[in-house]
Write a structure and sequence with these properties.
It is a single chain. It is built from 8 helices and 7 strands, in the order βαααβαβαβαβββαα. The chain is an alpha/beta fold. The mean pLDDT is 96.
């Protein structure tokens, strides 16, 4: 499984309240929720992300409260994957369950340039920058977590496994 997009670089300690502020948690429509993704950091993020981005962040991405809406907002905004030096366990699991690829790639944030084309190869555990021949080793989901991502999320996998649409 491989995803690609333009790198959108973020720093350390991006918490779920920054990813989707609490005031918007009453919104149920993912496309409307997406309009507020990362709003405190970049009010124009939604417009930038719509073409498909891979977030490349530092330490502690997704820390804070367990907020499934954070993953839903990012995915609906056009985020194709999140790679970071470290990712909160709760955010990581919410991402897998909702079909948003995640990878722990120490050093990626410092090696990747903003808006540079990157590719995340989940099977090989690599973040690639084809234009520069750069390859960064990543810890990617394995086993059932990878199967969930390949299916597009936990509900999609269950529907497929149970033979329901």
């Amino acid at each position: 499984m491989r995803v690609s997009g333009k790198a959108y670089i973020l720093g350390d300690d991006i918490d779920t309240d920054v990813i989707i502020p609490g005031v918007y948690l009453v919104i149920k429509d993912p496309s409307e929720l997406a309009r507020h993704a990362l709003e405190p950091l970049d009010p124009e993020f939604y417009g930038k992300a719509r073409a498909g981005v891979i977030i490349v962040a530092g330490r502690n991405f997704g820390m804070g409260s367990s907020r499934e809406q954070a993953v839903i907002a990012l995915k609906a905004a056009g985020v194709r994957a999140v790679v970071a030096d470290s990712i909160s366990r709760i955010f990581y699991r919410n991402a897998v369950n909702n079909g948003l690829p995640v990878a722990i790639c120490p050093g990626a944030r410092d090696a990747i340039r903003h808006w540079e084309h990157v590719e995340l190869d989940l099977l090989m555990g690599r973040l690639l920058v084809p234009d520069r021949g750069l390859e960064i080793v990543c810890e990617t989901p394995r086993g059932i977590a990878l199967r969930i991502l390949e299916a597009g999320g936990l509900l999609s996998l269950l529907r497929r496994e149970l033979g329901r649409s």
